[in-house]
Amino acid sequence: MAPAGVVDDSRTQEMQADVAAALEQRRQRRYLVRALLRSPTFVIGVLIVLFWVFMGIFSTAFTQSPLAQHPFAILQSPSAAHWFGTDDLGRDVLARTMAGARTVLIIAPLATLLALLWGGIIGLIAGFYRGITDDIIMRLVDVLLALPVIITSILILSLFGKSLAIVIVVIGALFTPVVSRTIRSAVIGEREREYVMAARLRGERSAFVMAREILPNITQPIIVEGTVRLGYAVFTAATLSFLGFGLGPPSPDWGLTIATERVDLQSAPWTVLFPAFALASLVVGVNLITDGLSSVFSK
Amino acid sequence: MADEKFAREYGHHLVEEVLNGHMTRRQLLVRASVFGLSATAIAQLLAACGSSTSSSSSPSAAASGSALPAVVTGGTMKAVIPPPLKALDPVTIYDQGGIVLVYQIAEYLIDLTNQNALKPKLAVSWAPNAKGDVWTFKLRQGVTFNDGSPFEAADVVASIERVINPKSGSGALAALAGILSPGGTKAIDTHTVQFNLDKPFADFPYLVSASSYNTAILPRNYAGNFQKKAVGTGPWMLKSFVTNQHATLVKNPTYWGKDTQGRQLPYLDQLEFALVTDTSAANLQLQSGAVDVQPQTVFQGGASVLSDASLRVDVYPSTGIRELAFNVNKTPWQDKRVRQAVAYSLDRKAINQALYGGRSNLGYDTFWEPTVFPGSPTPPARAQDYTKAKQLLSDAGHASGVDVTLTVANYLENPAFAQLIQAQCKPAGINVKINEISYNAIYAGTNTTTPWLNAPSVIVEWGSRPTPGVYAQAMLLPTSAWSSSHWNDKDFVTTFNQYESTTDEATRTTLASKLSSIQQDETPIVVAFYISQLRTQKKNVYNIQGPGSFYFDVSQAYMTK
Amino acid sequence: MARLIGRRLLLMVPTLILVSILVFALAEVLPGNLGRSILGPYATQQQVDILNHHLGADKPLYERYAVWAGHFVTGHWGASLQLGTPVFSTVMRALGNSLLLAGFALVIIVPTSILVGVYAGLRRDSLLDRAITISTLSMTVIPEFVSGVILIVVFAVTLHWLPVSAMPPQGAPFVDRFYYLILPAIPLMLLELGYIARMARVGTVQVLAMPYIRTAVLKGLPRHRVIFGHVLRNALVPTVTVIGSQVGWLIGGLVVVEFLFVYPGIGNMMINAAQFHDVPLLEACVLVVAVLYMLSNLIADIVVALLNPRIRMGG
Asked: What angle do CA B506, B511, B515 make, to 5 degrees?
């Protein structure tokens, strides 16, 4: 380090380079956003997801109550009064289908963020240090991957009971090993690059190099991995509810509804098909976003 | 013999009760069967009452049309039942699949008729002493086990002593505790058995009948390997058993049973059970024609089965319930007014409609319910009454509402029932939080931790029980093994002990009224309905007997082409 | 290569040991216990305690683990306390059923999805490519419990074309089993088809962008030779990796399909064993599935290495 008050030429150059890099980054980002907005896959995906976000937050303001029961009018087919029919307790299926978006839209993004956080830390450490640390971490990841997903989740969920928070943590934990693998390989690709070498030569602390140098350069794979996991999180949350290990009644959650109404599929298909299509549309929406992102990133 | 004299006197006593209007004929039928009166003796008694109508016909016979087609022998009948939850062992079975399979192969001293009356099986007659604490059973002659060994009193003694030995782990122990102790069962000769009870108990025969399903009579040297070597006296023999897939039974050629015309039973050659867990998968098996009969079709998802033109559905009232228990040791249930407030918040008709299509019988929070237990005093009906419920709540100090948690297993209609309770309690100011857990979890843990006995309030499913007394014995006494309410009412206990130790019907009727009104007033549990069961079969299947899904009697069933 | 395979196989041992310990510990903390599961809710606490003592279920965890592990590695897998049958034969029969179903599905999925994916990749950004991408995507995201139920109602109950159960009646010839497996295999095919086809498409697109392919095309090589000689071979690399990782899922993750179609596979057996606290059966199921999972990944890696010699097998 040069003494204070002395103009350090190399430092100025470095700063100028930084400014240039920042400008370049901003330009690139603007270009990316424009490319995304021109991608029909991405835009349609975003619209679908936004529709469900809107329904999840506001639907109860303009639909019937998703909880009001009518025991003498159960399993009625769609009509003017109930556009999507009624369910096994005489509740309005339209209202429940719309309100059902709420739980899954809370669970899936939070679970994905958790998985990205945990998997990100593990992947960064394993990929950055390599050697014995990497070996041990990857062995443990192997162990977790070798356990059937459904067994792990059911074991954990029957331990801690049912609640939104626990379902989120469980799905986050389930996805952590896979995410950490992806991020590890991205980190390995970056760690030999010049800028990382330079930072290490400067004597920066490892944590700094990981967080400030490597991380910003692997945001694209992280974003893609995140959207992929988001789709699976929706799917997994529904499956757990379906198997009786997700949320409990009287939640209008889609997976739970499909599970409980499944027995009536033959005589009252509307009770199952509407939430099933809703679920499918949300996952398709998330996947369209993924597709749009990855094709724009790869260009 | 003194016992026969007692039976004759008891018969006369019953006739008097009917003539005085204290009893119905149907009740006479049931009570007489408990005291071991033979069918001819009962017919004579009914005649003495001036009975002009015959006893009501069986539900399945009624549903099948009064005239059955001519019997066809031979053939294979396929049924679909849930798989036994564990390896087959009559001593420890507790689930529908296991009970139905054991019922085909092994037999009980006493079986049940379609009306829940007792019917001689391996015992041909039974009678108590005057006090009601010594019961003598005469056994059927000429019966052999399907391995060729003879059936004798020693087998009965061994079978009963086995289930009340704690080491066997039998569920029958808790039901017999305090009534029959080890050493109380004695063989008088090769075909007479005497039970020396700890106290007089008027409903004792039910405790050694098919309704106490762990009391199946097995060979005296039974070693616990029923699944490998199923030895019993029943009409069927286990040919193959593949866990969670199927069981095949063939007819026992040396079965002792004959029909009224002297033909060898069973009529069918073979019985195949598909073992299917998922109810809608089971329904689909029936609808696609893969199986001929489903001993129990559940209402949830049953709509398509019920409307299927190729199937015949028998509806028969059962005594099974969903007990909504309030743990009286936990807040806010210590106060009976809060419990009553829940009872007055419920719209039982609406619940019946939503859960059972209106087919079940309503209950009013007491076990003495005449629609299912004939001869019981009629309790006052409890309709939905929010004014009353709110008044009760505010009297109890909860004018601004009260929060409660209801624990329920994720099993059949239980979650739907919980949601109905939740919605109906809300207007009264009772905010119910539903805690849904798995079927395994609700029964897990020790006596002091298991949710079904320790949750503040809980829904528990009970299969059929043959009498109000058996129900009360199981869950309403401080000594009950399965009391989720932990209710301890001295008046009720004293009255109940008198009720079970008397053989005088007039006294029993008076005591029943008292028990019923205490139970209803105190409301330790809500009994909102007595579930009617459905049995579904193809239209060429005839003459299946038995008063519920546990008693799937196909020894006289047959199939036309 | 042989050394690398040997190393990978050796590394499986510590993984399996850790898995077995984890399962043992998890089964321990699940609500309930073995004695209660066997005797049911109506047995008294005293009876349950007696039985647990008799079965040794009241001994400390490490002691039970040591006893079980000692028996397990010496080939004494014991008897299932839940089913009353020997663990080894029970697990192997269930595994056989699961393998048959997964194998049946894979035999149809793999060629179809590779074909579809490569074709879409070759026609990148065409209308057909869009259509394939969107439709395979939609198939992948319909949960199998939804597609399964719909298939049953349409093909088994309404049309009577296919049976509702996945197992033929006793005594039926073996080939009949495939007829019964059609319906349960379809939901699996839908899920996997989209997934593998997308991988094959991505692989194709990447390969086509490579300079050597452009060179080959410019050199005037016939189109089919370019496709079969270069594109297909390289497009298979990511696809094989995905297939390897999905085999494990197909075997152990069929719970929902097994449940819906009443199929006696290993997935449901595992769940039942866990809930019953039948540890010997649970451990056997989990370990067998774990071994298959790791082996299929290993085989996938070997195949990838053979397809593309530039990729070395890592640890």
From this structure: 150
Mean pLDDT by 10 residues, chain C (315 residues): 84 88 83 84 86 87 90 88 88 91 87 86 81 76 75 79 79 84 87 80 78 76 74 75 73 74 86 86 90 86 75 46
Say whether B173 and C44 touch across the interface (CB within 8 A): yes
Q: How far apart are CA B229 and CA B216, in angstroms?
A: 15
Please report the beta strands in B190-338, taking only residues with DSSP state E, as ranges in sequence order: 192-196, 236-242, 246-251, 270-275, 293-297, 311-317, 321-326
Tokens standing for residue B23: 């009893």
Q: What homologous superfamily does CATH list for B321-530? A: Dipeptide-binding Protein; Domain 3 (3.10.105.10)
Ranges of CATH 3.10.105.10 domains, chain B: 321-530
Q: Which of A72, A244, A266 sits opposite B350 (nearest CB)?
A: A72
CB B267 within 8 A of CB B235: no
Q: Which residue has the higher pLDDT, B276 or C140?
A: B276
Say whether A15 sits in a helix, a strand or coil. helix
> Any chain C CB within 8 A of the CB of B274?
yes
Between the alpha carbon of residue B432 and those of residues A128, B393, B523, the distances in Å are 52, 14, 18
* Least Cα separation, residue C274 to chain A (angstroms): 8
Q: What is the 3-state secondary structure (H, E, C) of A143-179?
A: HHHHCCHHHHHHHHHHHHCCCHHHHHHHHHHHHHHHH
pLDDT band at B1 (very low <50, low <70, confident <90, very high): very low
C27: nearest CA partner in chain A: A155
pTM of the model: 0.86
- Is beta strand B123-128 parallel, antiparallel or unpaired with respect to B321-326? unpaired
- B415·A249 Cβ contact <8 A: yes
Closest CA of chain C from B55, distance in Å:
35
pLDDT of B62: 41
Question: Does any CB of chain C come closer than 8 Å to the CB of residue B63?
Answer: no
Q: What HEC string does chain C produce?
A: CHHHHHHHHHHHHHHHHHHHHHHHHHHHHCCCCHHHHHHCCCCCHHHHHHHHHHHCCCCCHHHHHHHHHHHHHCCCCCECCCCCCEHHHHHHHHHHHHHHHHHHHHHHHHHHHHHHHHHHHHCCCCHHHHHHHHHHHHHHHCCHHHHHHHHHHHHHHHCCCCCCCCCCCCCCCCCHHHHHHHHHHHHHHHHHHHHHHHHHHHHHHHHHCCHHHHHHHHCCCCHHHHHHHHHHHHHHHHHHHHHHHHHHHHHHCCHHHHHHCCCCCHHHHHHHHHHHCCHHHHHHHHHHHHHHHHHHHHHHHHHHHHHCCCCCCCC
Of B280, B303, B420, the CB nearest to A71: B420
Q: At residue B217, what are phi and psi to the nearest 5 degrees?
A: -85, 115
Q: Which of B221, B44, B65 is nearest to B145 (CA)?
A: B221
Query: Using one digit for the tens of pLDDT, what is the confidence trace for A4-28?
Result: 444 456 667 766 777 777 787 788 8
Count of CB pairs separated by less than 8 Å, B with C: 133
Whether ipTM tops 0.85, in short, is: no
pLDDT of residue C309: 61
- The secondary structure of B323-367 as a DSSP string is EEEE-TTSTTTTSHHHHHHHHHH--HHHHHHHHHTT-SEE--S-S
CB contact under 8 A, B437 and A161: yes
Q: Note the pLDDT tens digit of each residue in A211-256.
A: 788 888 888 788 878 887 888 888 888 888 877 777 888 999 998 8
Q: Do the chains contact at B307 and A267, CB–CB below 8 Å?
A: yes
Question: Under CATH, domain C87-312 is a member of which superfamily?
Answer: MetI-like (1.10.3720.10)
According to DSSP, the residues that pair with B242 across neighbouring strands are B246
